[in-house]
Amino acid sequence: MEKIGIIDLGSNSARLVIVNLFADGYFMVVDELKESVRLGQDMERDGFLKPQRVAETIKTLKMFRKLCDASGVTRIIAVATAAVRRAKNQRSFLDEIQASCGIKIRVLTAEEEAVYVYRGVINTMDVPKGIILEIGGGSTKIVYYNRRNILNHVTLPFGAVTLTGLFSEEGLKPEEVAKKIEEFFIEQLKKVEWLLEIDPDVQMIGVGGSFRNLFKISKMVHKYPLDNVHNYTMLTEDFMPVYDMIKVLDLDKKKKIKGLSAERADILPAALAIIKSFISFFKFERFIMSAAGLREGIMFNQALPITEEKPISDVLNYSLTTLVKYYGVDERHVEHVVNLSIQLFKQLRVLHKFPRQYLRVLKIAATLHDCGQRMKFYNHQRHSCYMILNSNLYGVSHRDIVLAAFTACCHNREDINAYDWARYREILNEDDIEIVKRLGIMLRIAESLDRAMSGTVKSINCDILGDSVIMKTEVEADATLEIRNAMLASAEFKKCFHKNLEIL
Fold this sequence. Notes:
Oligomer: single chain
Number of helices: 21
Strand order of the largest sheet: 8-7-6-9-11-10
């Protein structure tokens, strides 16, 4: 395993992530440090990075270097984006960093930056056709893709920091500034000809710190139960009240908003104005947020170099495999339980009548059902539930994550706690309880049929005869333990499916 550090030096903030690279193409973020350096601030006048901003940045990079050294990082990959790319004193700035911090920074071209953002999104989201809006401090990137291929991209030379500086005129009310930014951004969009040819069924994906702050505010407003910004869907009708509230406030009042970072309070209205313009231009009714962008694009390229040529084909499976390796659960047992669960789902379809999408939920639960043992064996199903809810799963909706978590909780004689279920009423409904119970009993039987974790039961063939379900097992050794354990689920099976259970 190799440990690397990735530094992203943006126009607004500098961020370090420390990543463990596993030998077989997987990775996990293990530490992070972020500082607001405002490197691009006040550049509009003469194109030079200002001495105060440079000094603050170097101070921050020295801290990053210290943490990397203390953490055993063997390589540092440092990139800079819009502010440094446009700076007239770029060379002296980079030389000073090299001399004082021992860090060599590569300045990304606008195209390289857009491609890294795209790779971060496409390898973590299951959205077949999308248009990515990434709002940085000094630039705004738009990437249009279909069938996992980039069709077009553009980098507009302004972002939340630069627009805030450009339109901070004396005497203007905050809402008037926001209106000016909206009008300006719409005019810039009209100049990009290929934007006028976007398919109407494309989905909007938002990337960057402003979207993360927007999620935090929306989470507070709606009492949303998950902390995971990735794959969070926000309706335009929910976005507009937030925008209308923030754009009229002065800075002191904005800093008091729960969920809004004080460091970003002054530039968030400009970012929200960009989002408002983008939504209006394309008439989007909703948009999805991605927590993965440029840094994740670099991570994927480092862990799995083939992603430079083509993206991961199965995002969810890659993400699940990463967690299996990270949690250290038995991979052969996991694979066997997943296969048996899939067999049960397909052979009992006439009883449960679930559409195929729920097979994904069962697969997540079956893959991670034992991860809670990393905390404690006793009641590990509850810990597995918690870990699924709080794992950074890619390629799956928040609803499916919650359903999978509760399904995993049911795999070891655990019933659904009404209080816990009520916490997720924003995502689930009462009918979902029966779905979880039925998926949970299938998982419980599948896991029981590999009780010795030896793969004794190779396959299952279910016959539904009258008021009974007869499961015939194909075994390669004595399966008394497995069948006896699985039969302990017969009472719950009858409650769920109204059939007696026999296992042969």
